[in-house]
Structures are given as C-alpha cells and as structure tokens.
Amino acid sequence: MSEIVLEAVDLKKHFHVGGGLLRQRATVQAVDGVSLQVRRGETFAIVGESGCGKSTLARLLMRLIEPTSGSVRFDGRDVAGLTGRHLAGLRRDMQFVFQDPFSSLNPRMSVGRLVGEPLETHAPEMPADERRAKVAELLRTVGLRPEHADRYPHEFSGGQRQRIGIARALASGPRLLIGDEPVSALDVSVQAQVINLLHDLRDELGLTLVIIAHDLAVIRHMSDRVAVMYLGRIVESGPAEQVFAAPRHPYTMVLLSAIPEPYYSRATRRLPLEGETPSPANPPPGCRFHTRCPFARPDCASRVPELRSAGPDQLAACHYWEEIAAEGPVASPPPPPRPAPEVAQRFALYEAALAGAQVTRRAETREIQREER
Ligand code: SF4
C-alpha cells in the first residue's frame, strides 16, 4: 500500500453560536468524527453539498483552525503539537489554493510581489535576483509569462488569476496542496484548463492533492480516491472509479443520479433528493441522511450507521447498502427524467473543454518557449 502522507482520526469541529438577547445557544457540528487517509502522490477529493463541512475539514487539515477533538498527522507528525519553526515548516509543506481568485489576491500587489512573498517568508536569505528568477520560473510553470510579474491582478482573467494563486502556493515548495473549490468560480472551459494544470503539476512536482468540491464532474475527472460528506460526516469513500461505477451509499447515488445522461454512470439509478439539508446545529438522530433517504427504514432514525467495508478499499455508512445494491440499477421504478437542457449543455461543454484543455496548455507552453527564443 502507498505511504500515508496525511491522516485525520475522529476529527471534530463544533462551533458554539447564539446567545445575546435571545439567550438561545446552539452547537453547530460542522465536522463530526471524520477519519481519512491521504496517500502520497494521489489526488484525494472531498465532495458534498454546500454546508456539509468540507471547507471546515480542509481548514482543520491545514491547522488554520483548531479542532474540538481528534487529531491530524502530516508525514507522521501530529500537527496539533507543532509550534515555532516546526509549525512554519508545516505551512511551507502544505499550501492552500483558494476558491475565489478575485478576492484571494491583494489588488495592490504586483504579480511578482504576490508570488515572491512566500519566498520572503520561507527563504528570507535568498538574494533578490535569485528570487526574481524563481518567480519567473513559477510563472512559467503555471503557464504564465515572466513579464506578467510587473502587472497587477485586475489585468488578468479569472483563469489567469487562479494560475497566479497556484504559483503563489507553489512558491514555498510544498509537498501537499489543498484546493478549496479551486475551479468553482471559473467558466467551464477555464475550469478544465486549471484542472489539467493541477494534474500536470502533481505529476511533474511529485505533489499530493486534496481537492474540496461540490461538483461531481470536477471530482470525476481529477481524483484517484473520493470521500463523500453529509452533515459533517463521511458517508462513503473509496477509489473514484469504483464509487462512480458502483456507489454504495444512497446519498452518493442521489448525487450521481443528478448528473445528466450520458455523463452519469449507467450503474446508477435515477433518484430524487427531496427536502432541505437539515441544520448541522440540530442533526437528525440515527442516520443523519434518514430524513431524505429514498431507502430509509424505521430503525434508520435511531441507529447510527458506522463506516464499514462496501467493496475493495470502499467504505459506506449505511445499514442496508447490501440490500439496496442487490436491487440493481434497473430496479428503480420511475423512468429517468430528462435533464434540463442548460444542465446537459454544461456537461457537454465540460467534456469538450477537458479534451481541448490539454491541447491548449501544450500550445501555451510552445508559445512561451517560442517567445523566449
Ligand atoms: Fe438510508 Fe437507512 Fe442507509 Fe441511512 S442507514 S442511508 S437512512 S438506508
């Protein structure tokens, strides 16, 4: 088995909210008992609806916030115990790529300063000309030109700004990148280019990627393994191909069935997702998904399902996944509804863009090389 580079054990983050005049206090269980392992060199995706706790989990993994309980280990070190230069070393080794390339870059700083700033922090002894050369190299690495260092973020498109954000994240020489919805703010065609860039960088630089996303199309094309979150807990995990081909948890089935033909897995039945996501301040007892699950049985409201084996390297937190899987994909009574035209078009565009993005990046690289000659 590949080496484990990042591990979370029974991680919890509970926020206490309310009080004041109404004196109503509540505890939001944003992350509630998450355990996961990320292997060196893989792309590990965490997926779920907004509000499921995935972004809080990403911040816990990087120790940007402190957990209520549980532990995180990076390269065998307990990150909670790190202080001083050891904590600075963690910041260098694990970097964050933010969702919004429009607000994550300081508009008053030139691209050169933005990308060079982490070098000033982590390698203050580096001479200025060496730092400039390093910034130029980083810009080339992400498909930008060295002369872009003199410009400002507002002069770039959304995709180019995300490339600047990635160059900044790479400046400290990290071994692990965590991307919190790194492409969701971008146009579909640009999303594909940035996804391919991250993929290529992973292979070229030997990085490990953790990608947080709500869009299964993004996950499908870039991840080796996937964890599905619902209301602060992981409900299914496993190799991405396997989870897409044979989902075991009803929530994963529902998410996959929302992907229109022909882009969804034909092993998946068409299932509606009804009702609102319950509040994490007052999660349903028993299985947290029972209020929306199309297969719920009476005891699901009182018995908490544990994550258990559901196939090779696959886990699912459902009491009845065997029986549900045995019914097979054709047992679903309602005929598949036709996807809304705009949704189908979005996925068609996405597939086409993914095919074209690789060509685009190669063309960009050739253009930069030609200009440098
Ligand atoms: Fe549905 Fe019950 Fe399984 Fe929960 S345990 S996912 S409610 S069938």
Model description:
The chain is of the alpha/beta class and 373 residues long. It has two domains: 4-223, P-loop containing nucleotide triphosphate hydrolases (Rossmann fold); 227-337, no CATH class. The protein is 36% helix and 21% strand. The strands form two sheets. The protein has an eight-stranded mixed beta sheet, sandwiched between helices. Strands 2-1-4-5 form a four-stranded antiparallel beta sheet. Helix 6 (188-205) links the parallel strand 7 (176-180) and strand 8. The chain is globular and about 70 Å long. It starts with a strand and ends with a helix.
Task: Give the topology, please.
Blueprint: E1 4-19, E2 24-39, E3 43-47, H1 54-61, E4 69-74, E5 77-78, H2 84-93, E6 94-97, H3 111-122, H4 128-141, H5 158-170, E7 176-180, H6 188-205, E8 208-213, H7 216-222, E9 225-230, E10 233-239, H8 240-245, H9 250-257, E11 308-311, E12 314-316, H10 321-327, H11 341-372
Parallel strand pairs: 3-8, 3-9, 6-7, 7-8
Antiparallel strand pairs: 1-2, 1-4, 4-5, 9-10, 10-12, 11-12
Helix pairs in contact: 3-4, 3-5, 4-5, 5-6, 6-11
The protein binds iron/sulfur cluster.
